[in-house]
Amino acid sequence: MQSLQQTVDFLKRNNLILATAESCTAGLIASLVADISGSGAVMECGYVVYAVRAKRDMLGVNLQTIDTYGLTSEEVAREMALGALQRCGAEVTLANTGLAEAEGPMDGVVCFACAMMVAGEQRVLSETCKFDGERNAVREQAARHALLSLDRYVNDLRNPAVQPR
C-alpha cells in the first residue's frame, strides 16, 4: 500500500478490526490510523508498552523471551502481537519493539510482528528493519512501515503456502 487511507480502506474491505501493541512507536501507529476519516470502523485499541513490566502484564510477554532474545527482537514483537490478539476483539494486530536512538549498530532497528486468526489458528509473522534519522524520524518511519505493510502481512498470513516467520 502507498497511503494510510489505502490501509484503512484495506481493513474495511476485508472486514478486519486492528489493534496495535507498540513499544518503540509509543502509540504512533494507532494515532496515524486515527488521523484517517472513518478509522473508527477499523480500530479496536492500542497498547503502549514501553516497560518490561507492561509488556509482561498487559500482553503476556514471557520474561524468558526477553532474557534470551532481548527487548529489541522479533521474538518479543511476536509475543506482543499474539498477546494483543488474545486480549481484545481485533482480528489483526500490529506490534513493534525497537531502538529509535541508541549507540552503535542497533540504532534505528525496529522489529515488527503481525498476528491474526486464520482458520481457527493463531498465525504470526515478523521482520526486522533499520531506519535512519533522529529519534522521532525513526519512530515515524517505523509506524508508517507497519501500516503500509499491513496488506502484505495479512496476505502472507492467509496464504497456507507461506510459512510465517
Question: Would you kindly provide a brief summary of this structure?
Answer:
The protein has 165 residues and is of the alpha/beta class. The protein has helices at 4-13, 28-34, 52-59, 63-69, 74-87, 135-148, 150-158, and strands at residues 18-22, 43-48, 92-98, 109-118, 121-130. It starts with a helix and ends in a 7-residue tail after the last helix.
Describe this structure in words.
With 165 residues, this protein is α/β, with parallel strands linked by helices. The chain has one domain (4-158): Maf protein (Alpha-Beta Complex). Helix content is 42%, strand content 23%. It is built from seven helices and five strands; from the N terminus they run αβαβαααβββαα. A five-stranded mixed sheet has the order 2-1-3-4-5, with helices on both faces. The longest helix is centred in the middle third of the chain and has 14 residues, at 74-87. It is globular and about 40 Å long.
